[in-house]
Design goal:
This protein has 154 residues and is an all-alpha fold. The chain has 5 helices and no strands.
Length: 154
C-alpha cells in the first residue's frame, strides 16, 4: 500500500505544471526562448517520470540490461512524438484556417498510426523486462506505466 501511495504522490507531483515566480523587471521572452524553456521543462519531466518508474520497479541487476533497452526506446519514442506533435499543430492550424476538415482527419489518422507503431516498439522493448519480473514488479509496472502514459492502458 505504501508503494502505491508513494507512486501516486510522485505522479501527482509530476502532473502539476512547473511554477516560476514572475520577474518584474525582465522583458517578455522571445518565442524561441519560450520554445527552448518548454523543451527543457518537458525533458525534465520526462527524466523524472522515467526515473520514478525505474525506482518503483526495484529492478535486480539482471533486469537492468532489459531496462536500459526499454528506456532507450521510450526516450526515442517520446522525442519522436514531441516532434510530430509540434509539426501536427502547425499543419492542423493551416487546415482550420481553410476549413479543410478532410485533411484534418487524415492528419489525425496519420498521427494515430504513428502512435500505434510507437506503442508497438515500446511493447516490444518492454517484453523481455516484463517476462523477467516477479508478480509484484508486474503490478507496479502496470500502475507506474498508467501514471506515465494513461492512453497506453486503454
Amino acid at each position: 500500500m505504501k508503494k502505491h501511495l508513494a507512486a501516486a504522490a510522485m505522479a501527482g507531483l509530476l502532473a502539476f505544471p512547473l511554477v516560476r515566480p514572475a520577474e518584474a523587471e525582465s522583458p517578455e521572452p522571445s518565442a524561441q526562448e519560450q520554445a527552448q524553456q518548454y523543451e527543457a521543462d518537458r525533458a525534465t519531466i520526462v527524466d523524472a517520470r522515467i526515473a520514478a518508474i525505474k525506482a518503483g520497479l526495484h529492478l535486480t541487476a539482471a533486469q537492468e540490461k532489459d531496462w536500459d533497452n526499454l528506456e532507450k526506446v521510450a526516450r526515442e519514442v517520446i522525442a519522436a512524438r514531441a516532434a510530430r506533435q509540434q509539426e501536427s499543430m502547425k499543419e492542423a492550424a493551416a487546415f482550420r484556417d481553410k476549413d479543410d476538415v478532410v485533411s484534418g482527419m487524415k492528419l489525425a489518422a496519420k498521427d494515430l498510426i504513428a502512435r500505434g507503431e510507437e506503442l508497438q516498439r515500446v511493447a516490444d522493448a518492454a517484453a523481455p523486462l516484463f517476462a523477467g519480473m516477479d508478480p509484484a514488479q508486474r503490478h507496479s509496472f502496470a500502475v507506474l506505466l498508467h501514471s506515465f502514459a494513461p492512453s497506453a492502458q486503454r
